[in-house]
Amino acid sequence: MTAAAVHRTAFGQAGKADAPPGPLSQTCAVRLIDRRTGQTLKEKDIFATITLAGSITAQGPVSQAHADGRVTIADGPQRLTGWPVARLRGLLAGIALATLGLVATPAPVAAESLLNVSYDPTRELYGEINEAFIAWWVAQGNDAPTIEQSHGGSGSQARAVIDGLQAQVVTLALSGDIDRIATAGKLPGDWQSRLPHNASPYTSTIVFLVREGNPKGITDWGDLTAEGVEVITPNPKTSGGARWNYLAAWAWAERAGPENGWTDPQDFVKALFQHVPVLDKGARDSTTTFAQRGIGDVLLAWENEAYLALAELGDDQFDIVVPSVSVLAEPPVAVVEANLTTEDQRKLAEGYLTFLYTPEAQAIIYRNFYRGWDASLAAPEDVARFPTMELVDIASFGGWAEVQAKHFADGAIFDQIYIAK
User: What's domain 111-203+331-384's architecture?
Assistant: First the structure.
């Protein structure tokens, strides 16, 4: 694994599964066989809990198994047919069917696992997404999967996947990091065209988090280079959020011009990093440095991190300052094709990313302080919290390939302007 923390989340079953749409398969008379012993089982030997409709369930001995995965149970004098609750699917998948003299073994719906390698501050978001996804996935008639999360600086996470971390999906801070994974042969070059909105299920931006009352009077980017101001930001060489921070500062300096004392954006960004006392590896580390260790006067933060700090640490400790110009950050997602081992795992990975665009998942995205695309199920207050801002997209800088080569590659502008303290 990598040095990045891995959060293993194997949620229990959630929700009940209605019958999936589509024609019902024909039923058949069956003989129930225990594969471990080869012995024929009697009805009383196998019990199942089935879903009939919505949250209505019934339990009883299995009297018939159907080719489409449904089972019929005996409930007193009644015979009820429905979908088995997921936790019993593994048992039922192990039962062989003999129908009309022909022995047929239904394909098991195996419980799969999935590793989501993500960038630093998305722990809370994907923790909630995973639980909702598992309930949704089970409701489609599948076994409950195990979802694992890995978090760290986006650049470091991309490197870990390239070096062999077995991620089935990546949800990183910027498309350039996933492009690097594609260049390494782990996924197709057209990955960004396979999901809506350039494969970005939400957007975000960069704001300032300052201490309560804003004692240094910080209102915009130009204030960050004032005497005595300490700025906290991660390392752009390892953190996607830090690259967005850097580019937002650059965009402001381009617009500020000589009247604000800056004729060259590079000079401004150099001056800004002279006010940075420490470069952490990722955005969450920088939040910890600022909010818990008490270092610095202003944190250059993902918008969601700033709101999360207010929610978890108290709005009586910090204020959010919205700068005049920032960036339109579009964190993308992709399936890592080279790391898929089974067709069921492919379906799981594709289903996981598709779920991010559903109204249910989009409501979770808004609730976790990200700017989603579909507000139809989101709480109005979760949508209304975001201010209107002038946001500069990555195309304005020439795209990530050009940005990486010009600013963040070894020997590029950042290496030229930053002097470690």
Answer: 3-Layer(aba) Sandwich (3.40)
